[in-house]
Amino acid sequence: ARLAAAGVAGADPDEWAGLAPVSVDAPLRSADAPISVTPSTVELIANCPLRWLLERHGGQDAATLPSVTGMLVHALVQLAATGASEERIDGALHQAWAVVDAGAPWFSRREHRRVRDMLTAFRTWLTDSRSGLEQLAVELDVDVLIPGMPAVRVRGRVDRVERDGENRPVIVDVKTSKNPISRDAALSHPQLAVYQLAAAYGAFDALGVEPEPGGARLLYVSRATERVQPALDEDARSHWLGTVQSAARATIGPSYAAHESADCARCPARTACPLTDSGRQITT
């Protein structure tokens, strides 16, 4: 009490965490208007709505070297897809790498070689896959409305859209992570499935393809490895439609559930999560 009377910050109980009343109890968004989700966040929302809320509103770590490298590789892959020569791509890589803070010189050289190897792997895949696929679009914005309760607007940017032999759209997502997921995990990969669902609702009709999706692929350029998700049948589309709508409803609020999973130890929002010691409320 003497400290509070002296004006010491944090001494007055009115400033203690956990004792203040809830500041806002209104939903984050209205369920009457279409709710926007991205294919990359559907899995995050389904796994832990609280993590989605905190990460999308300031609780995400700053960009790290792997994420910067990933953005660079995607930009260079897009350049390669336009038919740019190897010399031009190497020149763009050298120019961009000059401003990347990769730490120690030996580590920077190693990462630079790794990026070059990923670009080589992509060019090899691009050549080898032309017998069954035709490039239609690169870094294509997706914005499609899926009717229902609630109505959901799926927005995102797909790395590549290809056409297969049956004139169906095939989604290709370029990954720069070092460890590919298993073949079984690819069968139910949420991001690929949501893009396929978007295709079924007309996301790629302007490209002159059939509305039926032709499957999707994860291309791991760090390992020159591909993971395939077959075309969604009617039952699979119904399942993923329910998943997308459930994820959209979970974003409305005002309450957001925290779900425990194997990712908790790596969650950037764990210091604000009641399931962890660092984020648990200590007053009642």
Top keywords for this entry?
284 residues, 6 strands, globular
Account of the protein in words:
Strands 1, 2, 3, 4, 5 and 6 form a six-stranded mixed sheet that branches. Helix content is 37%, strand content 16%. The mean pLDDT is 89. The protein contains nine helices and six strands. β5 (216-220) and β6 form a beta hairpin. By secondary structure, the chain is of the alpha/beta class. α2 (39-47) packs across α3, α2 (39-47) packs across α9 (234-250) and α4 runs antiparallel to α5 (86-97). The longest helix is centred in the middle third of the chain and has 24 residues, at 105-128. The protein is globular and about 80 Å long. The chain has helices spanning 2-5, 39-47, 49-55, 65-81, 86-97, 105-128, 183-187, 190-200, 234-250, and strands at residues 35-37, 134-146, 152-163, 169-175, 216-220, 225-229.
Order of helices and strands: HEHHHHHEEEHHEEH
- List unreliable stretches of 5+ residues: none
Report the structural category: alpha/beta
Main pleated sheet: 6 strands, mixed
Helical percentage: 25-40%
| Cα shape | globular
Number of helices: 9
Distance between the termini: 20 Å
- Mean of the pLDDT scores? 89
Strand content: 15-25%
Alpha carbon gyration radius: 23 Å
Got a strand count? Answer: 6
